[in-house]
Amino acid sequence: MSERESTLQKEFSKEENLNGESSLGNSTSKVDLNNLIKRVKDEEKRSKRQNIVISAAALSAVAVFGIILTL
């Protein structure tokens, strides 16, 4: 096993331990629905903010273009 592979294996084991999973090879992992719901809500918030920013930028561009045309 190369040095890089052993480093990756150690990092993977640490990550499993942080996630509350056993590093002994047990492949049963639990899914926390509360975490999934929170992720979905956070993603929706980010999406709404992004849509507002894009809409504001488009509206500003239209306003500036309108002002330029009236001059």
Notes on the protein architecture:
This protein is elongated. The protein has helices at residues 3-18, 33-70. It folds into two domains: 1-27; 31-71. 76% of the residues lie in helices and 0% in strands. It is an all-alpha fold. The chain contains two helices and no strands.
Notable characteristics:
71 residues; mainly alpha; 2 helices; 0% strand; elongated
- How many domains make up the coordinates? 2
Low-confidence stretches: none
Task: Tally the beta strands.
Answer: 0
User: Which percent band covers the strand fraction?
Assistant: under 5%
* First and last CA, distance: 72 Å
Q: How many DSSP H or I helices?
A: 2
- Tell the overall outline: elongated
How do the helices and strands line up, and which of them pair or pack?
Layout: H1 3-18, H2 33-70
Offer a quick outline of the entry.
With about 70 residues, the chain is an all-alpha fold. Helices cover about 75% and strands about 0% of the residues. It is elongated, with a radius of gyration of 24 Å.
